[in-house]
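Backbone geometry:
***
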Amino acid sequence: MKTILTIAAAAITTAAIGEDRPQDRWNLADLYPTVEAWSADAQTVEARSADVAACKGHLGDSAKRMLECLELQSDVLKRYFRLAVYANELYAEDTGQSSSLSLRQRSQVLGSKLTEAASFVSPEVLQIGPEKVQSFLKEEKGLAVYRHSLDDILRMAPHTLDLAGEALIASFQLAAGQSSSVYTSFANSDMPWPTVKLSDGQEVKLDQAAYTKYRDAANRDDRKLVMDSFFGKFKEFERTMGVAFYGSLKEDTVYTRVRKYPDTMTRALDRNRVPRAVYDALIKATNDNLPTLHRYFRLRTKMLGIPAGEMRYYDIYPPLVPSGRKYPVDEAVQMMLAAVRPLGDEYVAALKKAVDSRWMDVYPRPKKLSGAHMAGYAYDVHPYVLLNHNDNYESVSTLAHEWGHAMHSYFSNKTQPFPTARYAIFVAEIASTTNEALLLDYALKTAKNDDERLLYLGSALEELRGTFFRQAMFGEFEQKVHALVDGGQAVTGDQLTKIYGELLRRYHGDAVKIDDLYTVEWAYIPHFYNSFYVYQYATSIAASSLFAEAILRGDKGARERYLKLISSGGSDYPYDLVKAAGVDLATPAPYDALVKRMNRIMDEIEKILARQKK
Protein backbone atom coordinates (compact mmCIF):
# COMPACT_ATOMS: atom_id res chain seq x y z
CA MET A 1 0.00 0.00 0.00
CA LYS A 2 1.77 1.93 -0.94
CA THR A 3 -1.35 -0.81 -0.52
CA ILE A 4 -2.89 -2.59 2.09
CA LEU A 5 0.92 -3.60 2.51
CA THR A 6 3.66 -1.62 0.68
CA ILE A 7 7.07 -0.08 0.63
CA ALA A 8 7.23 3.66 1.05
CA ALA A 9 9.74 6.22 2.26
CA ALA A 10 10.85 5.77 5.86
CA ALA A 11 13.54 7.21 8.11
CA ILE A 12 15.92 5.65 10.56
CA THR A 13 15.03 7.52 13.75
CA THR A 14 12.26 9.79 14.87
CA ALA A 15 14.76 12.27 16.18
CA ALA A 16 16.03 12.84 12.65
CA ILE A 17 12.56 13.58 11.34
CA GLY A 18 9.92 14.95 13.65
CA GLU A 19 8.81 14.91 17.26
CA ASP A 20 6.91 11.70 18.01
CA ARG A 21 3.97 13.29 19.81
CA PRO A 22 1.13 11.31 21.43
CA GLN A 23 -1.26 12.53 18.73
CA ASP A 24 1.09 11.02 16.13
CA ARG A 25 0.51 7.50 17.49
CA TRP A 26 -2.56 5.52 16.62
CA ASN A 27 -4.98 4.43 19.32
CA LEU A 28 -5.39 0.65 19.10
CA ALA A 29 -7.62 0.80 22.18
CA ASP A 30 -10.46 1.60 19.78
CA LEU A 31 -10.16 -2.06 18.82
CA TYR A 32 -9.43 -3.58 22.23
CA PRO A 33 -8.54 -1.77 25.47
CA THR A 34 -6.08 -4.51 26.48
CA VAL A 35 -4.50 -7.71 25.22
CA GLU A 36 -6.66 -9.51 27.78
CA ALA A 37 -9.79 -8.14 26.09
CA TRP A 38 -8.41 -9.37 22.77
CA SER A 39 -7.84 -12.83 24.24
CA ALA A 40 -11.38 -12.97 25.58
CA ASP A 41 -12.81 -12.11 22.17
CA ALA A 42 -10.50 -14.64 20.53
CA GLN A 43 -11.99 -17.33 22.79
CA THR A 44 -15.47 -16.24 21.72
CA VAL A 45 -14.54 -16.47 18.04
CA GLU A 46 -13.00 -19.90 18.55
CA ALA A 47 -16.14 -21.13 20.32
CA ARG A 48 -18.45 -19.71 17.66
CA SER A 49 -16.33 -21.31 14.95
CA ALA A 50 -17.68 -24.58 16.26
CA ASP A 51 -21.22 -23.24 15.72
CA VAL A 52 -20.27 -22.44 12.12
CA ALA A 53 -19.00 -25.99 11.66
CA ALA A 54 -22.30 -27.28 13.05
CA CYS A 55 -24.06 -25.82 10.00
CA LYS A 56 -22.36 -28.45 7.85
CA GLY A 57 -24.96 -30.49 6.02
CA HIS A 58 -27.79 -28.06 6.80
CA LEU A 59 -27.40 -25.15 4.33
CA GLY A 60 -29.97 -26.75 2.05
CA ASP A 61 -32.52 -27.50 4.79
CA SER A 62 -34.41 -24.30 4.05
CA ALA A 63 -33.92 -20.71 2.97
CA LYS A 64 -34.21 -19.66 6.61
CA ARG A 65 -31.54 -22.13 7.73
CA MET A 66 -29.18 -21.00 4.97
CA LEU A 67 -29.63 -17.40 6.09
CA GLU A 68 -28.96 -18.30 9.74
CA CYS A 69 -25.76 -20.13 8.85
CA LEU A 70 -24.44 -17.43 6.50
CA GLU A 71 -25.18 -14.72 9.06
CA LEU A 72 -23.38 -16.73 11.75
CA GLN A 73 -20.35 -17.20 9.51
CA SER A 74 -20.39 -13.50 8.60
CA ASP A 75 -20.55 -12.39 12.23
CA VAL A 76 -17.68 -14.65 13.27
CA LEU A 77 -15.58 -13.48 10.33
CA LYS A 78 -16.27 -9.85 11.19
CA ARG A 79 -15.09 -10.40 14.76
CA TYR A 80 -12.04 -12.27 13.53
CA PHE A 81 -11.00 -9.42 11.22
CA ARG A 82 -11.09 -7.07 14.19
CA LEU A 83 -8.85 -9.47 16.12
CA ALA A 84 -6.47 -9.76 13.17
CA VAL A 85 -6.16 -6.00 12.67
CA TYR A 86 -5.26 -5.51 16.33
CA ALA A 87 -2.69 -8.32 16.33
CA ASN A 88 -1.07 -7.20 13.07
CA GLU A 89 -0.88 -3.53 14.01
CA LEU A 90 0.43 -4.24 17.50
CA TYR A 91 3.20 -6.25 15.83
CA ALA A 92 3.78 -3.42 13.31
CA GLU A 93 4.54 -1.03 16.18
CA ASP A 94 7.59 -3.12 17.10
CA THR A 95 8.53 -6.13 14.98
CA GLY A 96 11.14 -7.10 17.55
CA GLN A 97 8.60 -7.55 20.37
CA SER A 98 8.16 -11.30 20.86
CA SER A 99 4.84 -10.92 22.71
CA SER A 100 3.35 -9.08 19.74
CA LEU A 101 4.68 -11.69 17.33
CA SER A 102 3.09 -14.37 19.51
CA LEU A 103 -0.28 -12.58 19.40
CA ARG A 104 -0.01 -12.28 15.63
CA GLN A 105 0.71 -15.99 15.35
CA ARG A 106 -2.26 -16.79 17.58
CA SER A 107 -4.39 -14.71 15.24
CA GLN A 108 -3.12 -16.66 12.23
CA VAL A 109 -3.87 -19.98 13.92
CA LEU A 110 -7.37 -18.76 14.77
CA GLY A 111 -7.89 -17.70 11.16
CA SER A 112 -6.85 -21.15 10.00
CA LYS A 113 -9.36 -22.77 12.35
CA LEU A 114 -12.13 -20.49 11.13
CA THR A 115 -11.28 -21.24 7.50
CA GLU A 116 -11.38 -24.94 8.25
CA ALA A 117 -14.68 -24.65 10.11
CA ALA A 118 -16.31 -22.89 7.16
CA SER A 119 -14.68 -25.01 4.43
CA PHE A 120 -17.92 -26.90 3.80
CA VAL A 121 -19.81 -23.83 2.55
CA SER A 122 -18.64 -23.74 -1.07
CA PRO A 123 -18.98 -27.47 -1.85
CA GLU A 124 -22.32 -27.58 -0.06
CA VAL A 125 -23.70 -24.62 -2.01
CA LEU A 126 -22.58 -26.35 -5.20
CA GLN A 127 -24.29 -29.53 -4.03
CA ILE A 128 -27.50 -27.59 -3.45
CA GLY A 129 -27.26 -26.29 -7.01
CA PRO A 130 -28.11 -23.01 -8.74
CA GLU A 131 -31.85 -23.66 -9.11
CA LYS A 132 -32.43 -24.26 -5.41
CA VAL A 133 -30.15 -21.37 -4.45
CA GLN A 134 -32.17 -19.05 -6.70
CA SER A 135 -35.41 -20.26 -5.14
CA PHE A 136 -33.99 -19.57 -1.66
CA LEU A 137 -33.02 -16.05 -2.75
CA LYS A 138 -36.58 -15.40 -3.89
CA GLU A 139 -38.08 -16.88 -0.74
CA GLU A 140 -35.83 -15.23 1.87
CA LYS A 141 -35.18 -11.53 1.27
CA GLY A 142 -32.45 -11.48 3.92
CA LEU A 143 -30.27 -13.58 1.63
CA ALA A 144 -29.98 -10.68 -0.83
CA VAL A 145 -26.75 -9.45 0.76
CA TYR A 146 -25.19 -12.84 0.03
CA ARG A 147 -26.31 -13.00 -3.61
CA HIS A 148 -22.95 -11.96 -5.04
CA SER A 149 -20.95 -14.37 -2.86
CA LEU A 150 -23.34 -17.21 -3.70
CA ASP A 151 -23.06 -16.44 -7.41
CA ASP A 152 -19.29 -16.41 -7.03
CA ILE A 153 -19.33 -19.84 -5.39
CA LEU A 154 -21.50 -21.25 -8.15
CA ARG A 155 -19.24 -19.94 -10.91
CA MET A 156 -16.25 -21.61 -9.22
CA ALA A 157 -17.75 -25.09 -9.50
CA PRO A 158 -14.98 -26.43 -11.77
CA HIS A 159 -12.36 -25.43 -9.16
CA THR A 160 -14.10 -26.54 -5.97
CA LEU A 161 -13.54 -29.94 -4.36
CA ASP A 162 -15.97 -32.07 -2.42
CA LEU A 163 -16.50 -31.61 1.31
CA ALA A 164 -13.55 -33.78 2.31
CA GLY A 165 -11.29 -32.09 -0.23
CA GLU A 166 -12.21 -28.58 0.86
CA ALA A 167 -11.70 -29.49 4.51
CA LEU A 168 -8.24 -30.83 3.64
CA ILE A 169 -7.31 -27.68 1.72
CA ALA A 170 -8.55 -25.54 4.61
CA SER A 171 -6.28 -27.44 6.97
CA PHE A 172 -3.32 -26.42 4.81
CA GLN A 173 -3.86 -22.83 5.94
CA LEU A 174 -2.07 -23.59 9.20
CA ALA A 175 1.16 -24.07 7.23
CA ALA A 176 0.50 -21.53 4.48
CA GLY A 177 2.42 -18.30 4.07
CA GLN A 178 5.49 -19.40 6.00
CA SER A 179 7.86 -18.20 3.28
CA SER A 180 6.36 -14.74 3.51
CA SER A 181 6.64 -14.80 7.30
CA VAL A 182 10.31 -15.75 7.07
CA TYR A 183 10.94 -12.88 4.65
CA THR A 184 9.08 -10.35 6.84
CA SER A 185 10.89 -11.32 10.01
CA PHE A 186 14.32 -11.61 8.42
CA ALA A 187 14.17 -8.49 6.22
CA ASN A 188 12.65 -6.22 8.87
CA SER A 189 14.24 -7.40 12.10
CA ASP A 190 16.95 -10.05 11.83
CA MET A 191 19.03 -9.08 8.78
CA PRO A 192 22.57 -8.08 9.89
CA TRP A 193 22.44 -4.68 8.24
CA PRO A 194 25.73 -2.93 7.47
CA THR A 195 26.76 0.45 8.87
CA VAL A 196 28.08 2.92 6.30
CA LYS A 197 29.82 6.25 6.61
CA LEU A 198 28.47 8.96 4.33
CA SER A 199 30.44 11.82 2.82
CA ASP A 200 29.34 14.20 5.57
CA GLY A 201 30.79 11.88 8.22
CA GLN A 202 27.40 10.55 9.33
CA GLU A 203 27.32 6.85 10.17
CA VAL A 204 24.10 5.09 9.20
CA LYS A 205 22.88 1.59 9.95
CA LEU A 206 21.53 0.72 6.53
CA ASP A 207 18.28 -1.13 7.28
CA GLN A 208 15.24 -0.92 5.00
CA ALA A 209 14.09 2.35 6.49
CA ALA A 210 17.49 3.96 6.07
CA TYR A 211 17.82 2.63 2.53
CA THR A 212 14.62 4.38 1.42
CA LYS A 213 15.84 7.57 3.07
CA TYR A 214 19.42 7.70 1.84
CA ARG A 215 19.15 6.16 -1.63
CA ASP A 216 18.16 9.61 -2.88
CA ALA A 217 21.16 11.37 -1.29
CA ALA A 218 22.39 14.45 -3.14
CA ASN A 219 25.96 13.14 -3.20
CA ARG A 220 26.35 10.59 -6.00
CA ASP A 221 29.07 8.65 -4.19
CA ASP A 222 26.74 8.32 -1.19
CA ARG A 223 23.98 6.94 -3.42
CA LYS A 224 26.36 4.34 -4.83
CA LEU A 225 27.60 3.42 -1.37
CA VAL A 226 24.04 3.05 -0.07
CA MET A 227 22.88 0.87 -2.96
CA ASP A 228 26.08 -1.20 -3.06
CA SER A 229 25.92 -1.87 0.66
CA PHE A 230 22.19 -2.55 0.81
CA PHE A 231 22.00 -4.91 -2.14
CA GLY A 232 25.37 -6.34 -1.24
CA LYS A 233 23.76 -7.60 1.96
CA PHE A 234 20.87 -9.17 0.01
CA LYS A 235 23.46 -10.70 -2.33
CA GLU A 236 25.09 -12.37 0.67
CA PHE A 237 21.76 -14.07 1.37
CA GLU A 238 20.76 -14.62 -2.27
CA ARG A 239 20.63 -18.39 -1.84
CA THR A 240 18.56 -18.19 1.35
CA MET A 241 16.16 -15.63 -0.10
CA GLY A 242 15.87 -17.83 -3.18
CA VAL A 243 14.89 -20.81 -1.03
CA ALA A 244 12.25 -18.70 0.73
CA PHE A 245 10.77 -17.34 -2.50
CA TYR A 246 10.89 -20.75 -4.19
CA GLY A 247 8.89 -22.09 -1.25
CA SER A 248 6.25 -19.46 -1.91
CA LEU A 249 6.20 -20.25 -5.63
CA LYS A 250 5.80 -23.97 -4.93
CA GLU A 251 2.96 -23.29 -2.52
CA ASP A 252 1.17 -21.34 -5.25
CA THR A 253 1.70 -24.17 -7.74
CA VAL A 254 0.24 -26.72 -5.33
CA TYR A 255 -2.94 -24.66 -4.93
CA THR A 256 -3.09 -24.17 -8.70
CA ARG A 257 -3.03 -27.91 -9.32
CA VAL A 258 -5.48 -28.70 -6.54
CA ARG A 259 -7.87 -26.06 -7.88
CA LYS A 260 -7.52 -27.46 -11.43
CA TYR A 261 -6.23 -24.33 -13.13
CA PRO A 262 -3.83 -24.43 -16.06
CA ASP A 263 -1.41 -22.03 -14.34
CA THR A 264 -1.05 -19.84 -11.26
CA MET A 265 -1.64 -16.61 -13.15
CA THR A 266 -5.04 -17.80 -14.36
CA ARG A 267 -5.95 -18.87 -10.83
CA ALA A 268 -4.84 -15.54 -9.36
CA LEU A 269 -6.83 -13.48 -11.86
CA ASP A 270 -9.89 -15.68 -11.52
CA ARG A 271 -10.12 -14.99 -7.78
CA ASN A 272 -11.88 -11.76 -8.71
CA ARG A 273 -12.85 -12.67 -12.29
CA VAL A 274 -10.35 -10.25 -13.81
CA PRO A 275 -10.08 -10.96 -17.55
CA ARG A 276 -6.69 -12.13 -18.83
CA ALA A 277 -7.06 -9.33 -21.37
CA VAL A 278 -6.35 -6.80 -18.59
CA TYR A 279 -2.94 -8.30 -17.82
CA ASP A 280 -2.09 -8.69 -21.49
CA ALA A 281 -3.13 -5.10 -22.29
CA LEU A 282 -0.97 -3.78 -19.44
CA ILE A 283 2.18 -5.69 -20.39
CA LYS A 284 1.79 -4.80 -24.07
CA ALA A 285 1.23 -1.12 -23.26
CA THR A 286 4.30 -0.84 -21.04
CA ASN A 287 6.54 -2.58 -23.56
CA ASP A 288 5.18 -0.52 -26.46
CA ASN A 289 5.83 2.66 -24.51
CA LEU A 290 9.32 1.98 -23.18
CA PRO A 291 10.61 4.88 -25.36
CA THR A 292 8.63 7.25 -23.10
CA LEU A 293 10.27 5.71 -20.03
CA HIS A 294 13.67 6.07 -21.66
CA ARG A 295 12.87 9.70 -22.47
CA TYR A 296 12.27 10.25 -18.76
CA PHE A 297 15.62 8.70 -17.87
CA ARG A 298 17.43 10.92 -20.38
CA LEU A 299 15.66 13.97 -18.94
CA ARG A 300 16.66 12.85 -15.44
CA THR A 301 20.26 12.42 -16.57
CA LYS A 302 20.29 15.99 -17.88
CA MET A 303 18.63 17.53 -14.83
CA LEU A 304 20.93 15.77 -12.36
CA GLY A 305 23.96 16.98 -14.30
CA ILE A 306 25.18 13.47 -15.07
CA PRO A 307 27.23 13.07 -18.28
CA ALA A 308 25.14 11.75 -21.18
CA GLY A 309 25.05 7.96 -21.24
CA GLU A 310 26.44 7.65 -17.72
CA MET A 311 23.26 7.37 -15.66
CA ARG A 312 23.34 4.44 -13.23
CA TYR A 313 20.66 2.58 -11.34
CA TYR A 314 21.61 4.43 -8.16
CA ASP A 315 20.65 7.69 -9.91
CA ILE A 316 16.91 6.93 -10.30
CA TYR A 317 15.79 8.06 -6.83
CA PRO A 318 17.11 11.56 -6.04
CA PRO A 319 14.57 14.31 -6.78
CA LEU A 320 15.00 16.09 -10.10
CA VAL A 321 15.15 19.35 -8.17
CA PRO A 322 16.87 19.35 -4.76
CA SER A 323 14.66 20.84 -2.07
CA GLY A 324 15.36 21.51 1.55
CA ARG A 325 11.72 22.23 2.24
CA LYS A 326 10.23 20.19 5.06
CA TYR A 327 6.63 19.00 5.24
CA PRO A 328 5.87 18.10 8.88
CA VAL A 329 2.84 15.92 9.22
CA ASP A 330 0.54 18.78 10.30
CA GLU A 331 1.32 20.71 7.12
CA ALA A 332 1.09 17.54 5.04
CA VAL A 333 -2.39 16.85 6.42
CA GLN A 334 -3.56 20.37 5.56
CA MET A 335 -2.26 19.96 2.00
CA MET A 336 -4.08 16.67 1.67
CA LEU A 337 -7.36 18.07 2.98
CA ALA A 338 -7.18 20.99 0.56
CA ALA A 339 -6.26 18.70 -2.34
CA VAL A 340 -9.27 16.39 -1.96
CA ARG A 341 -11.86 19.19 -1.88
CA PRO A 342 -12.98 18.32 -5.44
CA LEU A 343 -14.36 15.08 -3.94
CA GLY A 344 -16.93 17.04 -1.93
CA ASP A 345 -17.74 18.11 1.62
CA GLU A 346 -18.66 14.67 2.95
CA TYR A 347 -15.33 13.19 1.86
CA VAL A 348 -13.33 16.08 3.34
CA ALA A 349 -15.26 16.00 6.63
CA ALA A 350 -14.76 12.25 7.02
CA LEU A 351 -11.05 12.56 6.29
CA LYS A 352 -10.58 15.44 8.75
CA LYS A 353 -12.31 13.50 11.50
CA ALA A 354 -10.08 10.52 10.81
CA VAL A 355 -6.76 12.35 10.96
CA ASP A 356 -7.87 14.18 14.12
CA SER A 357 -8.86 10.96 15.88
CA ARG A 358 -5.54 9.07 16.07
CA TRP A 359 -6.27 6.59 13.33
CA MET A 360 -2.64 6.71 12.13
CA ASP A 361 0.88 6.06 13.41
CA VAL A 362 3.08 8.70 11.81
CA TYR A 363 6.82 8.66 12.44
CA PRO A 364 9.43 5.87 12.22
CA ARG A 365 10.93 4.18 15.26
CA PRO A 366 13.49 1.40 15.66
CA LYS A 367 11.95 -1.97 14.70
CA LYS A 368 8.67 -0.39 13.63
CA LEU A 369 7.45 -2.08 10.45
CA SER A 370 8.96 -0.31 7.46
CA GLY A 371 6.92 1.30 4.69
CA ALA A 372 3.28 2.28 4.84
CA HIS A 373 -0.03 0.46 4.81
CA MET A 374 -3.70 0.71 5.66
CA ALA A 375 -5.77 -1.82 7.59
CA GLY A 376 -9.48 -1.39 6.92
CA TYR A 377 -11.02 -4.74 7.84
CA ALA A 378 -12.21 -3.74 11.32
CA TYR A 379 -15.73 -3.15 10.03
CA ASP A 380 -17.30 -1.93 13.30
CA VAL A 381 -14.38 0.33 14.24
CA HIS A 382 -12.43 2.31 11.61
CA PRO A 383 -9.40 2.02 9.33
CA TYR A 384 -5.84 2.35 10.62
CA VAL A 385 -2.93 3.89 8.68
CA LEU A 386 0.75 3.12 9.29
CA LEU A 387 3.27 5.66 7.99
CA ASN A 388 6.99 6.31 8.30
CA HIS A 389 6.80 10.04 7.62
CA ASN A 390 10.05 11.60 6.39
CA ASP A 391 8.94 15.26 6.33
CA ASN A 392 9.59 15.39 2.56
CA TYR A 393 7.17 15.71 -0.35
CA GLU A 394 7.29 11.97 -1.03
CA SER A 395 5.92 11.48 2.47
CA VAL A 396 3.07 13.89 1.72
CA SER A 397 2.25 11.80 -1.33
CA THR A 398 2.38 8.62 0.76
CA LEU A 399 0.05 10.22 3.32
CA ALA A 400 -2.51 11.04 0.61
CA HIS A 401 -2.10 7.54 -0.86
CA GLU A 402 -2.77 5.65 2.36
CA TRP A 403 -5.67 7.88 3.33
CA GLY A 404 -7.16 7.20 -0.10
CA HIS A 405 -7.21 3.55 0.94
CA ALA A 406 -8.63 4.44 4.34
CA MET A 407 -11.46 6.53 2.90
CA HIS A 408 -12.26 3.71 0.50
CA SER A 409 -12.67 1.41 3.50
CA TYR A 410 -14.55 4.07 5.45
CA PHE A 411 -17.14 4.68 2.72
CA SER A 412 -17.46 1.01 1.78
CA ASN A 413 -17.95 0.01 5.43
CA LYS A 414 -20.42 2.86 5.89
CA THR A 415 -22.44 2.07 2.76
CA GLN A 416 -22.26 -1.70 2.42
CA PRO A 417 -23.32 -4.48 4.79
CA PHE A 418 -20.37 -6.51 6.04
CA PRO A 419 -20.72 -9.35 3.49
CA THR A 420 -20.14 -6.92 0.59
CA ALA A 421 -17.96 -4.28 2.28
CA ARG A 422 -14.57 -5.81 1.50
CA TYR A 423 -13.15 -4.77 -1.84
CA ALA A 424 -10.47 -6.20 -4.10
CA ILE A 425 -6.98 -4.72 -4.49
CA PHE A 426 -7.82 -4.20 -8.16
CA VAL A 427 -10.10 -1.35 -7.03
CA ALA A 428 -8.22 -0.36 -3.86
CA GLU A 429 -5.21 1.11 -5.61
CA ILE A 430 -7.46 3.37 -7.67
CA ALA A 431 -8.65 5.13 -4.52
CA SER A 432 -5.10 5.72 -3.30
CA THR A 433 -3.60 6.94 -6.59
CA THR A 434 -6.58 9.20 -7.30
CA ASN A 435 -5.74 11.02 -4.07
CA GLU A 436 -2.15 11.35 -5.25
CA ALA A 437 -3.26 12.85 -8.57
CA LEU A 438 -5.45 15.37 -6.73
CA LEU A 439 -2.53 16.24 -4.46
CA LEU A 440 -0.30 16.93 -7.45
CA ASP A 441 -2.89 19.22 -9.00
CA TYR A 442 -3.21 21.18 -5.75
CA ALA A 443 0.57 21.36 -5.23
CA LEU A 444 1.13 22.70 -8.76
CA LYS A 445 -1.61 25.30 -8.38
CA THR A 446 -0.15 26.58 -5.11
CA ALA A 447 3.55 26.34 -6.02
CA LYS A 448 5.34 29.62 -5.36
CA ASN A 449 7.93 29.39 -8.17
CA ASP A 450 9.25 27.27 -11.02
CA ASP A 451 11.65 25.37 -8.76
CA GLU A 452 8.76 24.22 -6.61
CA ARG A 453 6.77 23.29 -9.71
CA LEU A 454 9.72 21.25 -10.94
CA LEU A 455 9.80 19.44 -7.58
CA TYR A 456 6.17 18.42 -7.90
CA LEU A 457 6.35 17.59 -11.61
CA GLY A 458 9.44 15.50 -10.97
CA SER A 459 7.70 13.70 -8.15
CA ALA A 460 4.78 12.94 -10.48
CA LEU A 461 7.13 11.53 -13.11
CA GLU A 462 8.79 9.30 -10.55
CA GLU A 463 5.37 8.12 -9.36
CA LEU A 464 4.43 7.18 -12.93
CA ARG A 465 7.74 5.40 -13.41
CA GLY A 466 7.53 3.55 -10.11
CA THR A 467 3.84 2.71 -10.14
CA PHE A 468 3.23 2.05 -13.81
CA PHE A 469 6.40 0.87 -15.52
CA ARG A 470 8.15 -0.64 -12.49
CA GLN A 471 5.10 -2.57 -11.28
CA ALA A 472 4.44 -3.85 -14.80
CA MET A 473 8.06 -5.06 -14.88
CA PHE A 474 7.42 -6.82 -11.58
CA GLY A 475 4.33 -8.35 -13.19
CA GLU A 476 6.42 -9.74 -16.06
CA PHE A 477 8.91 -11.15 -13.55
CA GLU A 478 6.12 -12.94 -11.70
CA GLN A 479 4.72 -14.26 -14.95
CA LYS A 480 8.09 -15.78 -15.88
CA VAL A 481 9.03 -17.34 -12.54
CA HIS A 482 5.58 -18.75 -11.81
CA ALA A 483 5.50 -20.31 -15.28
CA LEU A 484 8.81 -22.06 -14.55
CA VAL A 485 7.62 -23.54 -11.26
CA ASP A 486 4.17 -24.38 -12.64
CA GLY A 487 6.05 -26.28 -15.37
CA GLY A 488 7.91 -28.38 -12.81
CA GLN A 489 11.23 -26.53 -12.85
CA ALA A 490 13.17 -25.63 -9.74
CA VAL A 491 14.50 -22.09 -9.38
CA THR A 492 17.39 -20.88 -7.26
CA GLY A 493 18.44 -17.47 -6.03
CA ASP A 494 21.00 -16.97 -8.78
CA GLN A 495 18.48 -18.00 -11.46
CA LEU A 496 15.96 -15.50 -10.09
CA THR A 497 18.65 -12.83 -10.18
CA LYS A 498 19.41 -13.61 -13.83
CA ILE A 499 15.73 -13.47 -14.87
CA TYR A 500 15.17 -10.24 -12.96
CA GLY A 501 18.36 -8.71 -14.39
CA GLU A 502 17.28 -9.35 -17.97
CA LEU A 503 13.99 -7.57 -17.36
CA LEU A 504 15.66 -4.73 -15.49
CA ARG A 505 18.00 -4.06 -18.40
CA ARG A 506 15.28 -4.28 -21.03
CA TYR A 507 12.99 -1.85 -19.21
CA HIS A 508 15.79 0.66 -18.62
CA GLY A 509 17.34 0.28 -22.06
CA ASP A 510 20.43 2.25 -23.05
CA ALA A 511 19.36 5.13 -20.80
CA VAL A 512 20.48 3.50 -17.52
CA LYS A 513 23.48 1.30 -16.80
CA ILE A 514 22.59 -1.57 -14.45
CA ASP A 515 25.39 -2.99 -12.28
CA ASP A 516 25.22 -6.77 -11.81
CA LEU A 517 24.93 -6.41 -8.03
CA TYR A 518 21.59 -4.61 -8.29
CA THR A 519 19.91 -7.45 -10.17
CA VAL A 520 19.37 -9.18 -6.80
CA GLU A 521 16.71 -6.53 -6.14
CA TRP A 522 13.94 -9.15 -6.50
CA ALA A 523 14.93 -10.44 -3.04
CA TYR A 524 13.99 -7.06 -1.53
CA ILE A 525 10.42 -6.93 -2.89
CA PRO A 526 7.90 -8.31 -0.34
CA HIS A 527 4.97 -8.12 -2.76
CA PHE A 528 6.23 -11.15 -4.70
CA TYR A 529 5.06 -13.33 -1.81
CA ASN A 530 1.50 -12.32 -2.72
CA SER A 531 1.21 -13.76 -6.20
CA PHE A 532 0.12 -11.52 -9.07
CA TYR A 533 -0.62 -8.60 -6.79
CA VAL A 534 1.63 -5.83 -8.05
CA TYR A 535 0.20 -5.52 -11.58
CA GLN A 536 -2.84 -3.91 -9.97
CA TYR A 537 -0.76 -0.88 -8.99
CA ALA A 538 -0.12 -0.26 -12.68
CA THR A 539 -3.70 -0.80 -13.83
CA SER A 540 -4.95 1.34 -10.96
CA ILE A 541 -2.76 4.37 -11.66
CA ALA A 542 -3.91 4.24 -15.27
CA ALA A 543 -7.55 4.24 -14.17
CA SER A 544 -7.05 6.88 -11.47
CA SER A 545 -5.42 9.23 -13.97
CA LEU A 546 -8.64 9.22 -15.99
CA PHE A 547 -10.87 9.55 -12.91
CA ALA A 548 -8.85 12.46 -11.48
CA GLU A 549 -8.75 14.33 -14.79
CA ALA A 550 -12.52 14.02 -15.20
CA ILE A 551 -13.17 15.14 -11.60
CA LEU A 552 -10.85 18.12 -11.88
CA ARG A 553 -12.41 19.16 -15.19
CA GLY A 554 -15.79 19.03 -13.51
CA ASP A 555 -17.19 16.53 -16.00
CA LYS A 556 -20.85 15.88 -15.38
CA GLY A 557 -21.32 12.92 -13.04
CA ALA A 558 -17.57 12.20 -12.74
CA ARG A 559 -17.34 12.79 -8.99
CA GLU A 560 -20.56 10.91 -8.32
CA ARG A 561 -19.39 7.88 -10.34
CA TYR A 562 -16.09 7.86 -8.48
CA LEU A 563 -17.69 8.16 -5.03
CA LYS A 564 -20.08 5.37 -5.96
CA LEU A 565 -17.10 3.22 -6.91
CA ILE A 566 -15.35 3.69 -3.55
CA SER A 567 -18.64 3.08 -1.72
CA SER A 568 -19.38 -0.17 -3.57
CA GLY A 569 -17.03 -2.42 -1.61
CA GLY A 570 -17.13 -5.90 -3.11
CA SER A 571 -20.75 -5.78 -4.24
CA ASP A 572 -19.66 -6.79 -7.75
CA TYR A 573 -16.51 -8.03 -9.48
CA PRO A 574 -13.82 -5.32 -9.43
CA TYR A 575 -13.23 -5.14 -13.17
CA ASP A 576 -16.98 -4.66 -13.68
CA LEU A 577 -17.17 -1.97 -10.98
CA VAL A 578 -14.38 0.03 -12.61
CA LYS A 579 -15.87 -0.42 -16.07
CA ALA A 580 -19.27 0.77 -14.82
CA ALA A 581 -17.53 3.88 -13.45
CA GLY A 582 -16.25 4.62 -16.95
CA VAL A 583 -12.83 2.95 -17.39
CA ASP A 584 -12.22 -0.33 -19.24
CA LEU A 585 -8.82 -1.68 -18.19
CA ALA A 586 -8.89 -4.46 -20.79
CA THR A 587 -8.43 -1.88 -23.55
CA PRO A 588 -5.39 0.26 -24.48
CA ALA A 589 -7.22 3.54 -23.73
CA PRO A 590 -6.33 4.07 -20.03
CA TYR A 591 -2.69 3.10 -20.56
CA ASP A 592 -2.35 5.33 -23.61
CA ALA A 593 -3.85 8.20 -21.60
CA LEU A 594 -1.33 7.68 -18.80
CA VAL A 595 1.62 7.68 -21.20
CA LYS A 596 0.31 10.88 -22.82
CA ARG A 597 0.10 12.42 -19.35
CA MET A 598 3.70 11.43 -18.67
CA ASN A 599 4.83 13.06 -21.91
CA ARG A 600 2.84 16.22 -21.11
CA ILE A 601 4.60 16.48 -17.75
CA MET A 602 7.98 16.14 -19.46
CA ASP A 603 6.98 18.77 -22.01
CA GLU A 604 6.12 21.14 -19.14
CA ILE A 605 9.42 20.45 -17.40
CA GLU A 606 11.36 21.15 -20.57
CA LYS A 607 9.51 24.44 -21.03
CA ILE A 608 10.42 25.52 -17.51
CA LEU A 609 14.06 24.54 -18.05
CA ALA A 610 14.17 26.50 -21.30
CA ARG A 611 12.62 29.48 -19.54
CA GLN A 612 15.19 29.33 -16.76
CA LYS A 613 18.05 29.34 -19.26
CA LYS A 614 16.97 32.72 -20.65
